[in-house]
Write a structure and sequence with these properties.
Layout: E1 2-5, E2 10-13, E3 22-26, H1 37-55, E4 60-66, E5 72-74, E6 78-81, H2 82-90, H3 94-111, E7 119-122, H4 127-139, E8 143-146, E9 149-152, H5 168-176, E10 191-195, E11 215-216, H6 218-230, E12 234-240, H7 244-259, E13 264-270, E14 273-275, E15 278-279, H8 290-295, H9 300-308, E16 316-317, H10 320-341, H11 350-365, H12 370-381, H13 388-402, H14 416-434, H15 438-450, E17 453-458, E18 461-466
Parallel strand pairs: 3-4, 3-12, 4-7, 12-13, 14-16
Antiparallel strand pairs: 1-2, 5-6, 8-9, 9-10, 10-11, 14-15, 17-18
Helix pairs in contact: 2-3, 4-6, 4-7, 6-7, 9-10, 11-12, 11-13, 12-13, 14-15
Bound molecules: adenosine monophosphate (AMP) and zinc ion.
């Protein structure tokens, strides 16, 4: 399996620290609002990565955090706590907000067939671990206390910027525009490990610590939860590209300073989903959610299919036209599979099965090339030298990674709109036959079949049924 590693800026052969179990950490949601479909693109990518590792034979243990404290509106420790902001917006407590949006997030993942990680841990459940880490970082001179907060001293590391290969001055413009400097920091890049003083003192959740009553910084949460659950040597750490700096850069700094050795070998980042105006964000009020797509008549798997058609390392621009196209192609694909499924025999061609399985694995192993893996699926469906049963077995096998419910039949119901469409098509076909345009007549029959509608010519006229 080859993966692009942000740390080396190369596609590398994946070699786990321990062959028995691959450890994988994925940054979880900050549960102050619904996930937007951009966030969910990252979780789809991570799901496919985990399932691809399983497919090629690895046993994976995956852990994810739920951020319910400490993530400020600017990723660089300034602004308001996002959770507090959510609670104020809805006149509820932070814990109520956290529980509600965690449940919504879980539902979104379920709808998208994203597997819930083996370990999911709330930031607020691991305060002891952060205190243990920060104590050691202070003892060993990697951290300092100033103005009531504990900061990590980034100058104590030889290569604080190794994940980005850029100095902070090249990157801060977007991150810090309009944000006032924190005078208590010794260096611009230093970050908070523990807050007792911040610009807002009305934080609801605070804990006792050796440095005063306060709360953890966002970055220490992921390091703490990962080390606690997955050990000192992490194989893969994922997130969206916006996490590379400062979040993952800071995770590496504090984890390696704490452990005294290299921590994570492979850093895999998913590119963003943008809308036509640029980056998707929750700050401007209205944003796209899975429920909103459902209200507009799309299934969550239409969106998953859309995401799978673009490499995780390419920006994907969301438009409803693109989603319509994905929905259409996905529906044709499912109907094609349905037709094959309705005509199976008992003949499994093991040679062909292995041949296609290898091609599929190869695509996954090539830095998770899902668009190519999908083209292998199409090749399977149109291979005339293979039995239908073999095809269906391959579809079932590939769907362990794709998770598109390729063999599940939706109960299509005929609503007024669909009825009118079918009747119009039947009239068009009759017209074509009258004009001896049999090619067009066949084309109409095929088009309907692709949509799961079977025409039957009877003496009384043409009728139809759902396949
Ligand atoms: P958050 O809930 O803001 O902590 O973000 C959850 C995940 O979504 C993180 O891994 C982010 O990197 C990722 N993310 C944020 N915005 C986008 C986007 N527009 N497209 C894809 N992933 C995103
Ligand atoms: Zn994280």
């Amino acid at each position: 399996m080859k993966l692009y590693n942000t740390l080396s800026r190369k596609v590398e052969e994946f070699i786990p620290y321990n062959e028995e179990e691959v450890t994988m950490y994925t940054c979880g949601p900050t549960v102050y609002h619904y996930a937007h479909i951009g966030n969910l693109r990252t979780y789809i990518f991570e799901d496919v990565l985990e399932k691809s590792l399983n497919y090629v034979g690895y046993n994976v243990k995956r852990c994810m955090n739920i951020t319910d404290v400490g993530h400020l509106t600017s990723d660089s420790d300034t602004g308001e706590d996002k959770m507090l902001k959510g609670a104020k917006r809805e006149h509820k407590s932070v814990l109520e907000i956290a529980d509600y949006y965690t449940e919504c997030f879980k539902n979104d993942l379920e709808k998208l067939n994203i597997k819930w990680p083996h370990v999911v841990s709330k930031a607020t459940d691991n305060i002891d671990m952060y205190i243990e880490m920060i104590t050691k970082l202070l003892d060993e001179g990697y951290a300092y206390i100033n103005g009531g907060n504990v900061y990590f001293d980034t100058t104590k590391l030889e290569d604080y910027y190794k994940l980005t290969n850029h100095k902070v001055d090249d990157m801060v413009v977007g991150v810090r525009a309009g944000v006032e400097e924190d005078d208590s920091k010794k260096n611009q890049a230093d970050f908070v490990l523990w807050f007792t003083k911040s610009k807002f003192d009305d934080q609801e959740l605070k804990w006792d610590s050796p440095w005063g009553y306060g709360y953890p910084g966002w970055h220490i949460e992921c390091s703490g939860i990962s080390i606690k659950n997955l050990g000192e040597h992490l194989d893969i750490h994922c997130g969206g590209v916006d996490n590379i700096f400062p979040h993952h850069t800071n995770e590496i700094a504090q984890s390696e300073a704490f452990l005294g050795h290299k921590w994570c070998s492979y850093w895999c980042h998913g590119e963003h989903l943008n809308d036509e105006t640029g980056k998707m964000s929750k700050s401007n009020g209205e944003f796209l959610t899975i429920s909103l797509l459902e209200e507009k008549g799309y299934s969550p798997l239409d969106y998953r299919f859309m995401c799978l058609n673009t490499s995780y390392r390419k920006v994907l621009v969301f438009t409803f036209d693109a989603l319509d196209q994905a929905k259409n192609t996905f529906s044709k694909l499912k109907n094609k599979i349905k037709t094959i499924k309705n005509n199976i025999d008992d003949n499994i061609d093991t040679v062909k099965f292995e041949e296609y399985k290898n091609k599929f694995s190869e695509a996954l192993g090539n830095d998770l090339n899902i668009p190519v893996a999908l083209s292998v699926l199409y090749d399977v469906l149109k291979d005339d030298d293979m039995s239908n049963s073999t095809k269906i077995e391959l579809v079932k096998d590939f769907d362990n990674v794709l998770s598109l419910d390729l063999l599940t039949e939706e109960n299509q119901t005929i609503n007024e709109e669909l009825k009118k469409y079918i009747e119009d098509m039947i009239l068009k076909r009759q017209e074509a036959k009258k004009n001896k345009d049999f090619a067009l007549a066949d084309q109409i029959r095929n088009e309907l079949e692709q949509k799961g509608i079977l025409l039957k010519d009877t003496r009384e006229g043409t009728t139809y049924e759902l396949m």
